[in-house]
Amino acid sequence: MAEFTGAYGDLRRAAAMQRLYTGIVERQSVVIRKVGGTRGGELSAHRVLSSPEVTPEATLNCLSRRTAQAVKGCRVVAAQDTTEVNFCGRMSRGLGPAGRAQTPSPGFFIHAMVAVDADADAVLGLVDAEIWSRAEGEESTAARRQRVLAAKDSQRWLTGAENADEVLRGAREIIVVGDRESDIFAVFARRPAKVHLLVRAAQNRALADGSLLFDAPERWQPLSQQRVQVAPRGPGDRGREALVELRAGPVILRRPRNGLREHDPASLALTMVEAVERDPPAGADPLCWHLLTTLAVADAAAAADVVRLYRLRWRIEQTFRMLKTHGLQLEDTQTAEPHRLFNLAALAVGAAVRIIQLVDARDGSTRPASDVADPPQIAAAKALCSKLEGSTDRQRNPHQIGSLAWISWIVARLGGWNCYYKPPGPKTMRDGWQRFAAIAEGYHLAHAALQNV
């Protein structure tokens, strides 16, 4: 299924969008002169990004259609978060402030959500994203508290849950995961009925009995211990592994004062899982997570599963790294006008997810190749595979025909991987996909011509 087939009601515009999106994936770049390939391709890309009929919302809706197919029957973690793209030291027309409040620079924000197979830890695709620029003159915290949720940036967390309910309706279970910024009473109170939430608590909230949230685990018995990976803290830090003690139990949150006028319930019954590192290494801050969830946690295995599901949130962070400094380098784009820039950003978010899927697949993913490839491309891969295999066992494609790992092996070979030494990296996969896409297109055209003879 080509992402933009039937989009915008204009075949030429849809074809131009498909070429632009494919070019970003293949070249891992958002520089239009590179992505366009030729002068004509560059001009076509500029025209389609400038078109008033092309919007980020329509583009993201096209990209989410493949995800909706991929999630059917799966237990899905929908990881959401917000990142900023700022243009420090550069002039940019029509963009509001981003960066630190003391030293703002022109920029914009992206709130994105990716779907992850909770059982296989495989990225299934982009669910949705919101792209916006903040107006000049940010209000004080006190002023923001006087506004209803729908008038705040915080609304994006609830909108994300609602979009997950819509796009991922074919999934067996939907668990929306967010970090501390999404610790919002109203989001829990108004979530879609079929969507579970899992959020790292930021606020030591008041409970219905007058006690405080973070004190509740003192009354619970330890369930088990679990090892979790602690993310690097900065340059030179390679991260570490922490042994945490798990406790879990029910909590009843009291509605905050500003929830009264929005008619939220007086209280909410949730579950909290606490993961605390009791003996951190010297000089290290102990890991401490308070995870609020609508999932049932009846025993140690369920508590450990909640911690595991929360850790899948790193997939959205990985998407942002691929989008920015570690991949597409969106912040270095020369496109400055907001309409064109936001259209380009929508394509780039989808491309970042696609690149991650290709790199992941090298490790043996059993997901179907249709997660990233269309039927004509899969047919071409079947014809091509044997020509890329060598005489030794290590030079043969070991993966199930039609799987994502199988097509990833083919792409890696086309990118120059020799089946020995270390696994193929993003650049090898990029180069291989560029060659594969061209070969697949030629294969499809040749077969179409033969059928017309």
What does this structure look like?
By secondary structure, the chain is of the alpha+beta class. It has two domains: 65-335, Transposase Inhibitor Protein From Tn5, Chain A, domain 1; 364-451, Transferase Inhibitor Protein From Tn5, Chain A, domain2, CATH 1.10.740. It contains 13 helices and ten strands. Strands 1, 2, 3, 4, 5, 6, 7, 8, 9 and 10 form a ten-stranded mixed beta sheet that branches. It is globular.
Chart the SSEs and their pairings.
Layout: H1 11-27, H2 32-36, H3 39-50, H4 56-70, E1 75-86, E2 97-98, E3 105-117, E4 122-132, H5 141-145, H6 155-167, E5 173-178, H7 185-190, E6 195-200, E7 224-230, E8 240-254, E9 267-277, E10 288-293, H8 300-311, H9 314-323, H10 338-361, H11 375-388, H12 404-414, H13 426-451
Parallel strand pairs: 1-5, 5-6
Antiparallel strand pairs: 1-3, 2-3, 3-4, 6-10, 7-8, 8-9, 9-10
